[in-house]
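Worked example 2:
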Amino acid sequence: MPIVFEKSAKAQAFEKGLFLLVAIIVGAVFGSPFFMDIHLGLMWKIIIGVTIGISILLFIKLIREIIEILKTGESFRVTITEQELSWFSPVPKLMESFTLKLSDIRAVHRLITRYRNSKRSNKVEFKIETAKGEMFELKPQMCGINPHKVFKALEGKNIPYHVNTTTEGPKLKIGNGDVSIGINSNGKSKIKSPLS
């Protein structure tokens, strides 16, 4: 019996609508100083202007995606049988539909990048590795169905599901930068100072 994951066009449009709401709020919050009697330096005006520009571009992009999704009215659908994985996208501009034989899938990967000493969110990538060594990336915002759910189902079909975590960014700095604490490649902590 096939395993089927499905998300309706309305559900996908609603999800993108939430991202749209965030873009509007960010644009309004950062844009508000322009409409108040607040004197800002040139640097702050540039930063606020860039943020508003990004919000507007994101707003336009999301509106187009929502219109495309609602125009088709079809659901995003993933079907896993004993022989193949089929991923249907009703909006080819967002993601092309594809079908792969399970025998052609070597493994599936979830790659997590954490940023040390940063407020940046973790970056999560989902990739399908073929038997030929090619990698297909699935973008969760575009493919309609959560790749993690699909990969867990594929794991039940004896396809290896690898979760890899890497850390990027500078090591922790203490004081005025004369001392830094970090981790050696062998996993032991180290303290470095100009006196050592």
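Confidence is low (pLDDT under 50) at residues 175-185, 187-196. Residues 103-196 form one domain.
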